[in-house]
Amino acid sequence: MAHDTPRYVEVGVPLVTSKNLREGTLNLTDVKLISPKDHEEISRRSLVEKGDVLFAMIGTIGNPVVVKGEPYFSIKNVALFKYYSPMDCSADYLRYSLHHFSTEMADRAAGGLQPFVSLKFLRDFCLPLPPLAEQHRIVAKVHELMALCDGLEAGLSIATTTRRQLLEATLQEGLSGRGSLHEGSYEN
Predict the structure, then answer these.
(1) Percentage of the chain surpassing pLDDT 70?
(2) Distance between CA 43 and CA 64 in Å, rounded?
(3) pLDDT of 83-136, one tens digit each?
(4) Domain total for the chain?
(5) What is the pLDDT averaged over residues 140-148?
(6) Per the domain annotation, does 182 fall within a domain?
(7) Nearest to 39 by CA among 31, 102, 132
(8) Is 143 a member of any domain?
(9) Residue 184 has pLDDT above 90, yes or no
(10) Which of 39, 76, 101, 137 has its CA 20 to 30 A from that of 54?
């Protein structure tokens, strides 16, 4: 089978591709399934484990995801970042760094309608790696800022809903003739 796309089956093991990586999460609702035999073969060269970072290499470049829990899926056209020393590198820091540099990587991607980055490109791409304590501080600050953004977004959503409700009420009142607009009251 080498690197060919495995044959899809009705019941089997999920095959994760770039489309399943979105906004830092792994979405398994729309996946093709492959046989357990094909999964084993793919796992020999690309075994996905808890704490690994997945990265879309084709199409939309980026969307890094840290694998949570005990995974049972295979990957196709997705880079697999394994870090072997939690004493040197935080998976969350790696995910945020990859997310940060995704735009630069996409700008340097090969291909036309279907841009891609190669594994060699990813291996050669340099990411800053501060001391572990600093990585943890950066991750904590990103989480803090993301929570702030989520709060602001929720506030904007509430304000938009309130504005829409006020507009609808004003229009309804104006169209029903109960508003402050009176026929014939316009003077030059």
Answers:
(1) 91
(2) 20
(3) 667 778 899 999 999 999 998 998 888 887 888 999 899 999 988 889 999 999
(4) 2
(5) 91
(6) no
(7) 31
(8) yes
(9) no
(10) 137
Q: If you search the block for the tokens 């830092």, which residue do you land on?
A: 24
pLDDT at residue 171 above 50?
yes
Cα separation, 30 vs 49, in Å, equals 21
- DSSP notation for 120-169: HHHHH-------HHHHHHHHHHHHHHHHHHHHHHHHHHHHHHHHHHHHHH
Range of the domain at 161: 130-177
Distance CA 152, CA 110 (A): 37
Residue 140 lies in a domain: yes
Element (H, E) at 21: strand 21-22
For β-strands 8-9 and 13-16, DSSP reports them as unpaired
Q: In angstroms, rounded to a whole number, what is the distance separating the alpha carbons of residues 120 and 5?
A: 20
Question: What does pLDDT average to over the chain?
Answer: 87
Closest CA to 93 of 126, 47, 140, 54: 140
Please answer whether residues 179 and 172 qualify as being in contact, where contact means their C-beta atoms are separated by less than 8 angstroms: no
Q: How many CB atoms are located within 10 Å of the residue 92 CB? A: 19
Quick check: 1 pLDDT over 50? no
